[in-house]
Structure formats: structure tokens, C-alpha cells
Design brief:
By secondary structure, the chain is an alpha+beta fold. It contains three helices and four strands. Helix 2 links the parallel strand 1 and strand 2.
Length: about 80
């Protein structure tokens, strides 16, 4: 697991986008592999100065991100 996510990451960064949108990028991975994938995403976006937007249900994954918007009942209920 995780190889497809890594290939997807490589393809996403190959086009040199300024913003990378990820919808549950680690949704089907075990915890250890999820950590590696999110660390890779964060590290690369920081290195190239891109913006990373991640949609996730995982508090563990969101903890790796600089800013979190938490939705409840279809509205932003908290910003961290």
C-alpha cells in the first residue's frame, strides 16, 4: 500500500501546480504508511512553495497541517 499514492504525488508535482488538492490521500492506508505519505506531501509542498489543501476525516493527518478548518452541519465551526 502507498505506492499508488506516491505515484499520484509524483504526477501531481510534475505539473508544477501552485495548489495541490487532496481528497482523503491516505484513506485506504495503514497508519504507518499514512504518516509517510502525509509527511511527503507536506515536505514537498513546503520545499517548492506550493499550497496543500487536504480533505480528511483523520485528526492524525490534519495535525500535520498548518491550518485546519473543521466543518460541522455543513458550516465552518472551528479554525485552528
Amino acid at each position: 500500500g502507498g505506492e499508488q499514492q506516491r505515484v499520484g504525488i509524483a504526477r501531481a508535482f510534475a505539473c508544477e501546480a501552485e495548489v495541490l488538492f487532496c481528497d482523503e490521500p491516505t484513506g485506504n492506508l495503514d497508519e504507518a504508511t499514512s504518516e509517510k505519505v502525509i509527511d511527503l506531501l507536506v515536505r514537498i509542498t513546503n520545499q517548492i512553495g506550493a499550497t496543500l489543501v487536504v480533505v480528511t476525516h483523520s485528526a492524525t493527518i490534519s495535525a500535520h497541517l498548518d491550518q485546519r478548518w473543521i466543518l460541522g452541519a455543513g458550516q465552518v465551526c472551528e479554525v485552528k
